[in-house]
Amino acid sequence: MDDGLNDICLRDTSGWSFAALPATSARDKIMSAASHLFCNHGFAATGIDSILSRAGTAKATLYNHFRSKEDLISAVLEAEGETWRSWFFGRLAEIDGPAQTRLLAVFDVLEEWFSDPGFYGCPFINAVAEFDTGNDAVRRAADLHKEYLLTWLKAQAMEMKIPDVTETARSLAVLVDGAIVAAQHSRDPSFARTARRLAECHLASVHGKTGDSRDGQR
Amino acid sequence: MDDGLNDICLRDTSGWSFAALPATSARDKIMSAASHLFCNHGFAATGIDSILSRAGTAKATLYNHFRSKEDLISAVLEAEGETWRSWFFGRLAEIDGPAQTRLLAVFDVLEEWFSDPGFYGCPFINAVAEFDTGNDAVRRAADLHKEYLLTWLKAQAMEMKIPDVTETARSLAVLVDGAIVAAQHSRDPSFARTARRLAECHLASVHGKTGDSRDGQR
DNA sequence: ATAAATCAAGACAGATTGGTCTTCTTCTTG
DNA sequence: CAAGAAGAAGACCAATCTGTCTTGATTTAT
């Protein structure tokens, strides 16, 4: 409700996962434990009791902060998404250079994500895969998350003066999703580079100029 | 054990889902019901009782044919994968023309799949997303499934005399995964065409020739 | 016809689920 | 110090979970 003070010392962490954030309040400890278990063992397969045991809190405390398990899942997805986007777009903001360089850097940041030993795929992809048919809440959360990405991609494409920015954003989104799934299944982070090459190919074909072959770097 | 007679009149169905196949034996009815429920509502979320109720069989019958729920999940994944591949590669075999045409037709067949109202994504992607960390059986099943696809893609790339067939197969696999996930989330089958354009772009760049713009067709 | 196998129906067991409630302790705030 | 909020520990409940077992009907094979 009125926990608006949390964002003060929360924003400068460098992790992509909410579960890795330092948790002080009981609410954060629950969220952190739930996030870790949900993302690593599945939402339905994770029981309330294991969350409590990992968080070291009491059952009543959980139900004081969250109405139900479903409510907790929503909160975890939201927090996980915000933490990830903050990390992801933060990394991209560090890139200096033209929009094309920043667009292609998306896949370098992805590779960094994939290389983390704790990488478990995208929580939203996993959640939609698990609940799927007819679960509106989860689907809307995933939609929102992807909307953030699409908007960012579109903004970069516009800066490049690409004719059809929507098509380019859709293309790059497909590449991002594909790289995530391929890396998750194979545990091979280099699928990010495969996706990057496809992105270079696409940008070169819609932009005319040859696509930033990242000479020397890395 | 000795149910080797089933494949006789099973192979000429035109559906991509095992759950839609006509089921006569009790075993098939259970498999069909389980497949439908697992894929639409999740593996962990589907109880044995709802499978039995949908199959119209008794509990003892299920445990006569399968050692456990886990065993049933494995069997469903295997059957679902085989049915899908039989449908998918069957469709592609109908395509006449050079290997490049066949490779690009992959995305037309995908769009057909995505357009089915009962489309729920790839069972293997969903299963890995749900079980994820440390579930070897599921992961190996998904690996095998993807291996079939990669081998097929590689064969077509070799026929095209593409220099690095492995890289091309990996690239197309990323596009397939990305299209599946994007279509599943958005319920928009046209992501198959987006992926197809990226594939054309890639093939054109590694093959020299301009990439089969499918003039007139569709 | 008789023996064997298959199956439906469902009772049953033991564990676990999500969720509520009570009791006692600890901490914070006026 | 006193009042009140927050949390820990855990009993408790009804429902559901996977899995076993029994019984009786139906079918198949000898």
Structure description:
The structure is a homodimer of 218-residue chains. Chain A is mainly alpha-helical and 218 residues long. Chain A has a domain at 72-207: Orthogonal Bundle (Tetracycline Repressor, domain 2). In chain A, 67% of the residues lie in helices and 0% in strands. Chain A has helices at residues 26-41, 48-55, 59-65, 69-94, 99-115, 123-131, 136-159, 165-186, 191-207. The termini of chain A are far apart. The first copy, chain A, binds a DNA duplex (30 and 30 nucleotides) through helix 3. Chains A, B: Pfam families: TetR_C_13, TetR_N.
- Largest interface (C-beta under 8 Å): A-B, 43 and 43 residues
Question: What's the CATH architecture name of the domain at 72-207 in chain A?
Answer: Orthogonal Bundle
CA-based gyration radius of chain A: 19 Å
Q: On the 0-100 scale, what is the average pLDDT of chain A?
A: 90
Helices of chain A, by number, come to 9
Structural class given helices, strands, pairing of chain A? mainly alpha
Structure at a glance:
Chain A is 67% helix and 0% strand. Chain A is mostly helical and 218 residues long. Chains A and B meet through helix 6, helix 7, helix 8 and helix 9 of A and helix 6, helix 7, helix 8 and helix 9 of B.
Index terms:
DNA-binding; 0% strand; 218 residues; disordered C terminus; mainly alpha; homodimer; Tetracycline Repressor, domain 2
